[in-house]
Design goal:
NADH Oxidase, binds flavin mononucleotide, about 15% strand, alpha+beta
């Protein structure tokens, strides 16, 4: 099914000046849960998260992202947990949903290599993560898994490349986290400054 948007959705909504100089709360508050609470997501919630990912921009609007979704308590979920690094298994198994996020590495029109497919997938997962924050959920991406063991878990397609597993659920409340989990959560919040990441600061003067 193709997602279509009415024309009025294509017109940018205006924001006040004060608002546009603030970082959105969705961006500020998003974080990767260190452990998930015992809450089952509704199928519609999962669909909405994937639909948010589908709104991401992509080179030539190719939309090269593909997702394999596994619910907790299923063989697929156990298979995804089974290929993770042990340090990830410990917390990821508390998630309700695991999404194996993949990209198609060629353009559908001409079969030529799509150099930015993995970048486009990253944008799609970022959209999913922000939508999760909007829905009071958390999406924690995992690169620490055996990529060779992920391939057999996908439909047969030489151009379908696994990239990350996204663990999704409601974040466990801080009062239920142990000391090590609280420390991990605070360590992860540290960010480089604007001047660290910009190779020149001339644009800001
Ligand atoms: C591509 C990618 C791979 C990641 N892999 C792991 C992982 O294997 N294990 C883990 O605990 N966190 C993983 N993370 C989560 C990062 O550690 C986390 O995003 C970072 O520390 C910032 O924390 P925050 O997301 O709460 O802001 C990964 C994140 C990304 C984007």
């Amino acid at each position: 099914m193709t997602l279509t948007f009415p024309m009025q959705d294509c017109v940018r909504q205006s924001h006040s000046k004060a608002e546009v100089l603030d970082i959105s709360n969705l961006i500020k508050n998003r974080k990767s849960a260190v452990r998930f609470a015992d809450r089952r997501l509704k199928p519609k919630e999962i669909e909405t998260l994937i639909e948010a990912a589908c709104h991401a921009p992509s080179s030539r609007n190719e939309q090269p992202w593909r997702f394999v979704i596994a619910r907790s308590g299923t063989a697929d979920f156990d298979a995804f947990i089974g290929i993770m690094a042990p340090s990830n298994q410990a917390w990821a198994q508390t998630a309700d949903v695991l999404v194996l996020a993949c990209y198609v590495d060629v353009f559908s029109s001409d079969g030529l290599a799509n150099r930015t497919a993995i970048y486009d997938l990253g944008a799609a997962v970022a959209f999913l993560a922000l939508q999760a924050e909007f829905m009071d959920l958390s999406a924690h991406q995992i690169g620490g898994f055996d990529i060779k063991k992920a391939k057999p878990l996908l439909p047969e397609n030489p151009h379908l490349q696994p990239c990350v597993i996204v663990a999704i659920g409601e974040a466990e409340t801080i009062d239920r986290l142990n000391e090590a989990e609280i420390q991990k959560a605070s360590r992860n919040r540290i960010r480089n400054s604007v001047s660290d990441v910009c190779l020149s600061l001339r644009a800001f003067n």
